[in-house]
């Protein structure tokens, strides 16, 4: 019961901060074209294999690419580049022995509409897999569920038409948005995953949301340790796809 109250409190705070633009205040406006812009905490499109101390052999250009495509939770707002989830996913892949390059394409404050405009730019990196973590900002702004689902659907379609494997990360909303809206929001991810036969991460913040130890002082964005937990949680869903594409 106590954990449920902490989660409700966290999600309510998250809704207030996102709705009143705290995330946007520190982020660039949504791109009006496919040209990349610099985001907060991470440069948009950062190749997280290209870190100090890594040899050129470790970042061979022929390694298949995984693009982490999302908002501030993907960009790694508030943590060092090596602590973001894309960077820690790269570390996990290296340790386990999968030869992939991870590209961080997260932008703070991004909506599904902004993500849709960036798809052509993401495709320029020729990814073999894209992890789509979008929609949370739509929901927290109370945008139309049909609009959010439609944008995500077009994003998925464009990637699949280019033979890119899509992994869809689900998100949840605080209960103060009303049962119909919150249930509809959560369900749209499942519906899209079923319709397009996608691997789905049911809740991207599973095991992290509501934890004061795994979130920064704002109670919203994970710490480096929080992102480590996220990677450990999502890796079992990703690994079967890596085995097929290896």
What CATH architecture do you see? 3-Layer(aba) Sandwich
Specify the CATH class.
Answer: Alpha Beta
Percent of sequence in beta strands: 5-15%
> What is the 3D shape?
globular
H/E element sequence: HHEEHHEHEHHEHEH
Main pleated-sheet profile: 6 strands, mixed
Strand order of the largest sheet: 1-3-2-4-5-6
What would you call the structural class?
alpha/beta
Number of helices: 9
Percent range of helical residues = 40-55%
Q: Unreliable runs, pLDDT <50, ≥5 residues?
A: 14-44, 50-58
Query: In total, how many beta strands?
Result: 6
- CATH superfamily (homologous) name: SGNH hydrolase
Distance between the termini: 43 Å
Radius of gyration: 17 Å
* CATH topology call: Rossmann fold
The count of domains is 1
Average pLDDT number: 83
What is shown here, in short?
The chain is of the alpha/beta class and about 250 residues long.
